[in-house]
């Protein structure tokens, strides 16, 4: 799969894991360290799918998704939320914020790739 | 993966540091709303990474820790001193768990369960719940069995049906019929039926059919209604769970029915497993105009975007202010070594230019000068790469203070200063043990008991200060306590009892203080379970010397004791004087030499049968013949005309080293002997000279100490 | 089938010892060739104070400090002053790199491991303790050095 993915997470380990997994699946991975940084990287990037953490400094995942969805070109881009919580409340908040789906950390690489297929082909 | 694991542990160090910082701010009352968030995120990130590597112990503890912190974030828990103290202890245990995960080893289970129960008590969670939550946090990726999002179907009924379905012929192909009808919200959430259907097709052989029953005429189409639906005939060996997995993200955003048509037999009829039609709760997002989304939007993956993508990482780098690059330390060390070679090479070149008589050529001479300058600049820059702030080291000491003070029942506060001071990374690492020991000493021996302090009119809380600063090209680190000062009569008594000094020896205060550094000084009666462990200050002193550093004591009765460590900025280069002794060439650190003298006939005088002193102005300084001391040359018959380097020690000791000649004064690259050979008494390290030969770098302080054995320095100048 | 043949061959390979032999005084010694990193000509060593006599000192091996042990002195044999024909065999022992001064390198030997003999216990010779095994090859007695014993650990040397 040659998807173009933007992954936003403040943990370097998670970023490394995402990049390792996604690049291994033939995707192109762009990384950002928090929501604010994510918006900077997003500018003009046109990713096929965005993966974002929720709890991050500067701009958290909810704020990030809001800001992404507010841009007309990214209104329909699939966004997956990374969360360690599998609480229903969090997911429903994520969906309200405009997320397409969620990935529970720590993620199983195979499932991550499968989830990306489900939301981005 | 191994690399990611390694980088995870590096990240853990940083996160633990951030946690420590945040807790310190909270302790000092400087916390704002974000501070607890920072602490929480640090623990949370450790948990996230640990989960990825299956470090269950770490995950479990981080989870409990984070849960309690979350209570504070939510404002349900006050940041009381006791709670912060508990958080500090949890931070310590977390750091232990990280270390154990990385290096192996054991954790004190009693400590852990004690902390866990305290955490749980604070969080108001009973053990059961915590346990369950941890179990929930397993590497399971996307899970289906989640408690309901608004309007999720009754789980029990659902799972019962699923079980039933799964039990039928697990391996045989099943034939199921799936009806999938998206709500408009599905499109708004960024989900795409096409991909869902494609993923479904991945489970087996499928026939997809778009049902248009609900499709209105175009003029009636308002774009918000649920008009598209699909019916999928699937021949698969996947069970309903797997099918449902595909639709996990759109749960609640569509209606979905899965009907078992039967074992793979078109005529069969099966149980119907129905996910209830899912009511839609969300109102259309205000920011999203309710426009129709009639066609699946395909990901735009033109060549154009690919090219763009390839260029992107560079942009990403640029957009981060103050971006840093993570470099393997080995690579830097290799570079340091190469620069070292370059320095040697440059001096060899200069030497051969000199030898060939070309140095008169101004072009060559100025070219060489420039070369030398550039070499030095490169060297300085490379050394800077290795420099790190002492902050992480100081933070570790904060923990030592906490542990040590609770062990001996004293209230102690650690004050730190100059945490931003940078030193070579290796020096920082190797300072950890001696500093730990000194801090323990300060808490255990330096500070009085609370009762004694109160009796002396001091506040009950003792203070240990840790300060770092740069001073004239060296780094100074001070460990100070505001305790009772060194009990000199007692120290003297111990040293006498141990036979380290003779009872009638006349010693200055400084000399008495320095007895603490003598090997064998630390006595059984002095050894508490804390600072004892058979390690005395002599070991600390040796460790500091091995780093090219010096340690001195100042102590004022009733006010406290300060240990001051002076260290070179880097371990890699040194300004030295190149001298000849017998047939060998040696380097003496310039920092140790206060002056050089040429002896006149009356300058050297016999002190005892084996010793001589040199008169320097109004004082007498012990004379040490380097040649005999190092076994390079036989005793001299006369010192008339001998060249002497006057060595001044930071504690005031002096000595006159006799050499056969001074050859040069220059910067040399330090090559350790420790790894390849071991410690040589009186020798700090080696270097490579311009002619490719190795020269030893002298350690004057160590030389004096070893020459003296355990007696007074002036008795050691065994000069014939 | 192919797999089995390969394994057998490997086993045989394993059973073959390959040694670098050299002369120290009148005697011939050898070391496992796998532990030899390089052989270089004699250069003057910088002597180390307070070191045991058999430690000749340190030399510069391409920017690294290499301790050199005089095998003759170490084995308790008669010693000539080092000369230009001497060589230094650079060996790796348990991760440490050390130079051994010998008179001259003679040969590379290869023979089945079964031909190795354990040296008889003879307490009179101090040097004997450094011999790991013996063999007779074309009438010559070859002594195989116990390298870790010859080169004491850094702590022992420095102590």
Helix content of chain B: 40-55%
CATH topology of the largest domain in chain B: Heat Shock Protein 90
Largest interface: A-B, 64 and 68 residues
Helix/strand class of chain B: alpha+beta
DSSP strand tally of chain C:
10
Uncertain runs of chain C with pLDDT below 50, 5 residues or more?
1-13
Q: Identify the CATH class of chain C.
A: Mainly Beta
The assigned CATH architecture of the largest domain in chain B is 2-Layer Sandwich
- Widest β-sheet, arrangement of strands of chain B: 15-19-20-18-17-16
Distance between the termini of chain B: 66 Å
Mind sketching the topology for me?
The complex is a heterotrimer of chains A (121), B (720) and C (159).
Chain A: E1 4-8, H1 12-24, E2 28-32, H2 35-42, E3 49-53, H3 61-69, E4 79-83, H4 88-97, E5 101-104, H5 109-120
Parallel strand pairs in A: 1-2, 1-3, 3-4, 4-5
Helix pairs in contact in A: 2-3
Chain B: H1 2-27, H2 33-52, H3 56-73, H4 81-103, H5 109-123, H6 127-136, H7 155-167, E1 174-182, H8 184-188, H9 193-201, E2 204-211, E3 229-236, H10 240-246, E4 254-263, E5 272-274, H11 303-319, H12 329-355, H13 362-386, E6 387-389, H14 391-408, E7 412-417, E8 422-424, H15 425-446, H16 450-455, E9 462-471, E10 474-481, H17 488-497, H18 509-514, H19 537-546, E11 550-556, E12 560-568, E13 573-581, E14 584-589, E15 593-598, E16 604-606, E17 612-616, E18 619-625, H20 626-629, E19 643-648, E20 654-659, E21 661-669, E22 683-688, E23 694-698, H21 700-708
Parallel strand pairs in B: 7-9, 14-23, 18-20
Antiparallel strand pairs in B: 1-3, 1-4, 2-3, 4-5, 6-8, 9-10, 10-12, 11-12, 13-14, 13-21, 15-19, 16-17, 17-18, 19-20, 22-23
Chain C: H1 2-15, E1 16-24, E2 27-32, E3 36-41, E4 55-61, E5 64-70, H2 71-75, E6 87-93, E7 96-102, E8 104-112, E9 131-137, E10 140-145, H3 147-150, H4 154-158
Parallel strand pairs in C: 2-10, 5-7
Antiparallel strand pairs in C: 1-2, 1-8, 3-6, 4-5, 6-7, 9-10
